[in-house]
Amino acid sequence: MASLPPVGSRVSIRYRLPAGTAHALTDVIGELQAVEPVIVLRTKSNGMVEVAPADVVAVRELSIVPVRASEIRALEHAAALAWPGTEQHWQDGWLLRAGGGYTSRANSAVPLDFSATVEALPPIIDWYRQRGLPPWLALPERLLPIRADGTKHTRVMVTNLTDAELDPAVMLSTTPDAAWLTGYQRDVPAEVLTAVIDGEVVFASLADTAVGRGAVTTAPDGTRWLGISAVHVGAGQRRQGHARRLCRTLLGWGTQQGATRAYVQVLSENSGAILLYHSLGFRLHHHHRYVDAVSLIA
């Protein structure tokens, strides 16, 4: 059986029908209510559909509510401002970001304007080559008709913000100190971590157990978004609620900065992080991936 997302997700399931029926397969879309001993979905009409796990042929997770391409573009714009690298350049509707090669987000081009097309790839490739960097494209789904599978498939999950209390044990700072950088355990320069365009950034730490980053930026449609990133918990401290406490404080901080919605970008195979954010109220908004621009014109 194909793997299932957490209970509460909206999914499309294709499954086998009993022998002798008019069609061998059928599809159902609904909110996942249970996964064992049988799969239970609540459909739009509030009807319940049960599916035996052995009959499932394919599963596709859907955004919790229908999402327009314009909403994907607006959120991706806010996210790009929140992790822009140390150098930026607009090229025919694409925002090109460079940060010395540290992190994919800070070193990729994302199509943020309606005018962005694949015709801009040659100058994009040249811009990155001048900086000694591979020309990675950050491609949100549905914004461009590019079929390349790419790499680092990512789920963008969102939630609405409400008032939240800040945990007094979680320390907040506008810059990452030595202890935060040690806890992050990734070799990323402070100038890349602190970079943000027209927004605010904060670095959260919980004793010697967990660290994380929050950034609030504004999308073109006026929505103030909090982006949570760089969350890391020490290997010996996991599954003890530290990441949850830290993220709740970042959500509270974001509310204080005027954010009304929050997002996270999680690698699709990072099941632990997906479950954590799902339990905090985050649901799938859209997917994106990274594609080498050279592969599209070779």
From TrEMBL:
Q: Which CDD domains match?
A: NAT_SF
Q: Which InterPro entries match?
A: Acyl_CoA_acyltransferase, GNAT_dom, Rv0428c-like_C, SH3_Rv0428c
| Alphabetical list of Pfam families matching this protein | Rv0428c_C, SH3_Rv0428c
- All copies of domain N-acetyltransferase, residue ranges: 156-298
State the source organism's domain of life: Bacteria
Q: What is this protein called?
A: GNAT family N-acetyltransferase
**Which organism is this entry from?**
Mycolicibacterium sphagni
